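User: I'm writing a short report section on ligand binding and want a predicted complex to refer to. Could you take this sequence and (2E)-2-methylbut-2-enedioic acid and write out the structure as tokens? A short remark afterwards would be nice.
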Amino acid sequence: MSYPATMQDSLNLCVATRERRMTETFPRATADAKETLLKGFHPDYRAETFAALHVGPNAGDRTPRELAQLLEADSALPEFPGPRSSVPGLSLDKPDYDCDVLIIGGGGAGCSAAIMADTAGARVMIATKLRLGDANTMMAQGGIQAADKDVDSPAIHYLDVMGGGHFANTPDLVEALVADAPEVIGWLEDLGAMFDKNPDGSMKTIHGGGTSRRRMHTARDYTGAEIMRTLRDEVRSRSDIMLLEFSPAVELLTDTKGAVTGAVLQNLNLNRYSVVRAKVVIIATGGSGRLHYQGFPTSNHYGATGDGLVLAYRAGAHLAFIDTMQYHPTGAAFPQQILGLLVTEKVRSIGAQLVNSEGNQFIFPLETRDVVASAIIRECQGGRCVTTPTAVQGVWLDTPMIEIRRGAGTVKRELPAMVRQFGRHGIDIAKEPMLVYPTLHYQNGGVEITADCATNVPDLLVAGEASGGVHGRNRLMGNSLLDVVVFGRRAGVAAAKLAKERTGDLELGLSHVERWRKELAAKGLGSDIKSPLLLPDYTRKS
Ligand code: MEZ
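Assistant: Sure. The structure tokens for the complex follow:
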């Protein structure tokens, strides 16, 4: 066995109780029990970790302190005297690039938008902070939802999404999500995505937490990587799409009426600014897990620092559901080298049980994520957990049960990414359980959008994790991969149409930043913190 001696007693209990647990189905929680669990243990309910915003369209709303700090920070651009900027190296009169549709972000939503806008005849540019495809889409593992089987329907999918989101979701957005889903699966397949199939050629589908039908389409446990590979290849093969990598946006450009007209990018290789003039801008910058809310580890990619929220907010966009984050119940808790990395929900979908240090199940494994995460935190706070040599707490995710239930070879066939992730550290998950604890996984909220991805700021669209409203207060597994493609495609179509309608000269200005600075000064907020953050700061402070 590869676990340290201090974890052995509890591991032995997990093994010893397996036979009993084999015949045990843990009952689903009642609505009241779920509410008690959430209020008692979910990180969204730790009031002291939130702050109220003082400035901007959401003044008065609460959000995690780390995000509030960035939303209320100063622009990273140096001071400039007026709307026509005189920042060194920044010439708004002579933009470096010109396009119809500028897409900020090169993940699933950004690439889907680019393909559709290009198809509609727009001149498209993608500006992305790291490489094309470095995004949370790539990191999603377990599947993508779509109601495309006879026993299912978009209406049933709709009810599941609403239930998972505590019925707080924006109905129009949920309708768009579930209605487009079957077509999206077909579109991805046509582009070359290889989903898992049954011997008769039909799609293999499994359950996720909170789904009432098996509608999770999978590509082993590399579903996000497979989708991202497909979209990235398609973007790269379309030579008309301009691509700037290592070029995050640091500010939007606006005209005097407040409509968006482009963006200022920072070339991370050359460390200089460049200016893009665009008739329409789509923000598809993803989430903010790298802000490590409440000190949680994260499953997110390195660039997930909430940049799009900052840019949009400063330009006047209203945000929604910024007081709720998703903590995926099963982040790796051991070994330390992979702390917080995703352990896909598919592990529970195909039969693994969650087990505390006393060898007992404590929650139905496919409750919604917020409920399962809260139950794990409750077990740990109650001392019914395992502590690693580096003082990390966790509970067992009993993966050997998968093979006991479904036959030898299932783990390797269904979970090759997990087998590799743990195998590298000497843990054979077909024979030994994993130790897990919730990890910061998803930003439930973001910029408020319509079903066509419009915001309250003219000519600014938002798609994917940077938007808010689709998932209400909690997202179900597999609805983020779906969201990025559904709303990425919608944003691309809408942006190409808007760009055609926008005629006349575009005025490139930064008056919204000037206004923002005045607003900050009026509230006595300092300018020592700059945003967007762009990259997490992992340097040791002491
Ligand atoms: O939707 C997700 O977040 C996802 C597919 C994650 C997972 O557990 O695999």
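A remark for your report: Confidence is low (pLDDT under 50) at residues 81-85. Residues 140-143, 342, 344-346, 477-478, 480-481 surround (2E)-2-methylbut-2-enedioic acid (CB under 6 Å).
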